[in-house]
Amino acid sequence: MGRASLQSCMLTGLAILAAGMVRAEDPTTADGLARQAEAHRAEGKLEQSFNELLRARALAEKSGDPGLLPAIDAALADVGSAGEFDGRAREGWARALDRLLAEIGPGQERTRAAALNTLGRLRDTPDSADAFRQSAMLARRAGDPALAATAGINAARRLAAMGAPAQAEAALTEVERDLAALEDGDGKAFLLVAQGIALMDVQAAARQSRGTLARRSHDCFVKAAELARAAGDRRTLSAALGYLGTLYERLGRPDDALVLTREASFWAQERMAADLLFRWHWQAGRLHRSQGRTADALMAYDAATAAIRRIRSDLLRAYGGYGSLFREAIGPVYLESADLRLRQASALRGTPQAQRHLVAARDALEQLKAAELEDYFQDDCVAALKAKVQTIDPLAPGTAVLYPILLPDRLELLLSLSDGLHQATVPVGGAEVGAVAASFRRQLEQRTSSRFLGDARRLYDWLVRPFTPLLEAREADTLVLVPDGPLRSIPMAALHDGKRFLVERYALAVTPGLSLMEPKPLSVQQAELLLAGLTESVQGFPALPFVESEIKTIHGALGGTVLENRSFVIERVGRELNAAPYSIVHIASHGKFEPEASDSYIVAYDGRLSMDQLERFVKLSQYREEPVELLTLSACQTAAGDDRAALGLAGVAIKAGARSALASLWFINDQASSQLIADFYRRLATGVPGKAEALRQAQMSMLTDVRYQHPGYWAAFLLIGNWR
């Protein structure tokens, strides 16, 4: 079990508990409101908990209770970082806790312990284990076994994730003494569940069968279920039974596991705990599949994804900012469902049932891709655009959509044509595809040799060649890729069939999902353009002298408003976008997409334009009938091998509310970049049919220029979203 598996049920150690206050439910007192907030935090009602803590803090200030304020502040950091209600990123909350720890005086060991526990969770680095262990030590010294157990469990989980199972097991041995000191009730059952899961994590990290660990985990779950049943705590009862089922699944007892999983599902349904319910439906799907009950497995997976849809925004808050942990925690539900559907479709190839399985598999992965985008940008940007979004099925003649699906044991390809979906299976695992893709990207960026060709041909053979006869028979001229994982960070244009590049055969585009802004043609003759760029060196970034000719060429062909150098300031960009209905926004400046959207930016003359600012500015005109047609970022880059950063690049059009974006995967020679971009606009102005074809022709022109023949100069530019 990965370290993300406990996130949704792990007690985070609210500082209110650490402050040792008497339980109260009087909402007119600070401690009563704080206790109420603690209960709502445990139920996952983050916003309600946060607002109650704010009111509790105001009451504590009014009543002159300085001893309570640090505890409430630590709790606000815990809840606020989980829900991000005031816009502060996790690091902002962590810095607030650093200041709080510096201010906490002697005699407040409980509050210091709680703050350290939350700080360890927020930072989530190898140093977190030390913070958790220090928190546990202080809590024991202060006589708070519940907080000590919480911090000790967190320390053990972090140590197990770091590959230190012996130290993790030692930490859990101390936790057992903390739990023994707790009276039945007061959250003991919940802590026993967390202890049982941590013991399973240690077993997994040890990479060997340890019967004693399994028995200790079993005893934790059984005792937790007993306490929860006696207390009428249906949520914790569901967790205890469900994770006991998980243990039995690992021990090869599927029948016993399924009985427990069904009961856990019942109690989760009774409690309306969708965050637990999706886990138990998912677990049932795995168990049915292992026993060959395909129909039952598919029903269970469908129920799991339906439960996730109901709580997806809460899951984004629970896992948001942890990057790949979100995919590790939620992704397997969708991937396993799609895997099973694809196997069924392959067995039923050529039948109507096969087509239904293919569509269902694709739809399951579409849900995951949408959730990943929302996780990256930390908002519901995809869901918010549904009113303006339509699926790209059915496709126009000549257009094909290629959907690679990377699975552990094979590569599945779906090709969408006007007559439906077609399937091909390639016997190469996702890890191998990812390794070759990373090598391909590295070789391309060097631009000094043709060593990339080997990887280019392998990727072509895996991704395109299986459908080449079908594409030729249908006379396809436009190929749209819906990339996954490591394929997001490579340019399909540079794939090679042994004779020519893929861009020599097809106009190419990428889209983060099969839904996008309405694919209508761009009429550049009537377009309003905003052209912004930097030629000077600012903020330590090198000058881009050829941006001047790039903007001059575009302006000469299509007109528009120009913001260059000192006039390209953040406030002016917002003012311009608010004042006129621009349909093309072109920004020629340094930019970078990082693994976290909050770290991604575009350089303006007076500072860095964040993705949130860009979204707000572009959406200033959201009340007009038409969105921005094209957003161009002509000098941006993503980190090599970082598919999460590439996900941000792929999703920038959706984030900004634009129908399409033109952007680069890596920074290119300034002169080459400006030449290609200017040529792209010239071709649009002369009536080339569609943005994808205009980009193809501009790239083909570069390919014939002896200075820029290497694809490292021209392949990095991607057309994202609407290709027409």
TrEMBL record:
Domain CHAT: 456-722
Gene3D superfamilies tied to this protein: Tetratricopeptide repeat domain
Domain of life: Bacteria
Stretch forming the signal peptide: 1-24
Pfam families to which the protein is assigned, alphabetical: CHAT
SUPFAM superfamilies associated with the record: TPR-like (SSF48452)
UniProt KW keywords: Plasmid, Signal
Protein name: CHAT domain-containing protein
Organism: Azospirillum brasilense
